[in-house]
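Project standup — Tuesday

K.O.: blocked on the structure for the chain from last sprint. Re-posting the sequence here as requested.
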Amino acid sequence: MPEILRKTLKNGLLIIAEKRPNVEGMVSIHVGVKVGSGCEDAKNQGISHLIEHLAFKSQGKRHFEEIIKSFNHNGIDFNAGATRNIIDFEAEGPCEHLSSALEELYRAVKNSKYNLEEVKREKESILSEIPYRKDKPMEFCLDSFFSVLFRDTPFARPVLGTSKSIKKLSRRKIANFKNSYFRPDNMVVAVCGKFDEKELFRTVKKTFGRLRKRPVPPSETKVLESKNYSRTTVIKKRKGITSSYLVFGYLTPGFNHPDAPKLILLNSILCDGLSSKLYLKLIQSRGLGYRLKGDVENLGDFSVFHFDVQIGNPNRFLEARRLIIEEIKKIRNAPLEDIEGYKSWLISQLKRDLADIDYRCEMALDSEIEKWAFDFRRLPEIMSKITAREIQETAQKYLTDDYTLVALVPWGFRIRKKHQE
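H.V.: unblocked you, prediction finished:
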């Protein structure tokens, strides 16, 4: 396995790079800032997502069309994203344009001279995005799940913000937020693919190396220490839907914990693929659902282990919940006899993903910022060594009866008192 090159500049900025020469001359770059909606307060909700929208817009006298052409006319694809704990600026293209791509990403990170009309336009775009997401039942259910799980903490707030908060965001607030968090010692530049090492370090030094090192505001994400989590069920009702939607999950340790790979495998066993436990039970055997999706979403010191189900017949909602709990209890009560098959499925998916340089680059960035306890490139090997007994112990430890369940059901749907928790 190739070595990951590491270099820290004088201003604290970290560069991590992995050479992958057999990728037909392509290179992927991710610039990550350790900030997201989890660092926002009630007054600036959604500002990280707005910064994502403005990432490649006009920079002072430099028009956005010039910026776009600088990427695309050199064959470079580019994007930006904002989550609860990372804002990511990315580019992927021919290795001969590595320097120009890095220069453009630096300008995007550094820019605070946004065009007022573009700020207004992007705010309007988000204001239309917020109700659109609420109109999608599963997305609404997911947002509600996070709100319940992280009640009264920054992570309970939606990444998009609220209509009220977005309207009040100004160019000055954006500049102040970036000035607070977009510090070199709060950033990582990750590169993967074919590249010249000297060119990479030279270009990063003359761009990102110019950023001034200054203190970063303290994090407000110590959720595990301040909250006592017990079983919680929230049922919401909506007119105009015919299915029920539920999100079932737990607050679990982050990827900086040694149990993280076991939790990833456990989530896959339950709901990844047509042979997963919940797919076979809920959809194949009982015809209960249309959609089943799971994830272990890492948020630094903790993660969210969850799965989402769309139930075609809303009257079978209680049956679906009962079957989910039964399948979890089966894993807690006895070691899996067919664990090797589940491991083979997940290992195959991981190897496919790891063949993609953009995926590797993003994982390198995330693992560095979030301080993962394992080398993501070794995940297939790590998974192969996990035993059935370890999966049982992981389920016993984390998938307890203190789950959180949020459901969205049709208006008029009734649950008898004896079934409520």
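K.O.: great, moving the ticket to review. The mean pLDDT is 92. Residues 8 and 30 are 16 Å apart (CA to CA).
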